[in-house]
Design goal:
Blueprint lengths: L14 E4 L2 E5 L6 E9 L8 E4 L3 E3 L2 E5 L3 E6 L4 E6 L4 H4 L6 E11 L4 E11 L7 E4 L16 E4 L16
Parallel strand pairs: 2-10
Antiparallel strand pairs: 1-3, 3-8, 4-9, 5-6, 6-7, 7-8, 9-10, 11-12
Length: 171
């Protein structure tokens, strides 16, 4: 009998590790978060390249707009930056303590296989003050007890806010 040992090599899927989550708060002093990813081919002799799925690529930088801001990823140094757009209506609509998550898929390629890994940004809402208070009627009939004079409406960009309205008498 002939006996010989042998090894069967198989291609391992490429991976991305590193800073894959971050949190940013609406209307805070700092509206950017950043991190570094570590792409790996996981097989000897292979190298890994990557892109942000759906991004616009200019040189080594890929940029993709999301719902609340935009992510840029620079493949020359493996660094990503997320810039929250505080002027965006979706961002401003987040109420105090409300959190939305925005994910960007990064596709890593080792020449034989691809794998997706997400960078997830948690956007926390802040309380925005109401911008308008309106009364639907401008006149009141004098000496009419319990007269309904109209309704009060409040305009606020925070979609889920509740309001307490109090009236006081001025003589």
């Amino acid at each position: 009998w002939f006996k010989e040992s042998f090894v069967i090599n198989s291609n391992q899927l490429p991976t991305i590790t590193g800073d894959l989550t971050a949190t940013v708060t609406e209307d805070a002093g700092i509206s950017t978060v950043s991190g570094t990813i570590v792409p790996a081919a996981n097989d000897e002799g292979q190298s890994a390249s990557y892109t942000v799925k759906g991004a616009t690529e200019i040189g080594t930088v890929g940029s993709k707009a999301g719902t609340y801001g935009a992510l840029t990823l620079d493949s020359s140094n493996d660094e990503w930056v997320y810039l929250l757009d505080n002027s965006d209506a979706d961002t401003q609509a987040l109420a105090l303590n409300e959190t939305a998550t925005e994910s960007f898929a990064v596709v890593v390629n080792d020449g034989l296989n691809t794998q997706e890994q997400s960078i997830s940004i948690h956007v926390q809402g802040a309380n925005d003050a109401p911008t308008a208070l309106a009364l639907s009627a401008a006149t009141v009939d004098e000496n009419v007890p319990q007269a309904v004079i109209g309704s009060i409406s409040v305009a606020d960009v925070d979609a889920k806010d509740n309001y307490t309205i109090s009236l006081s008498r001025i003589d």
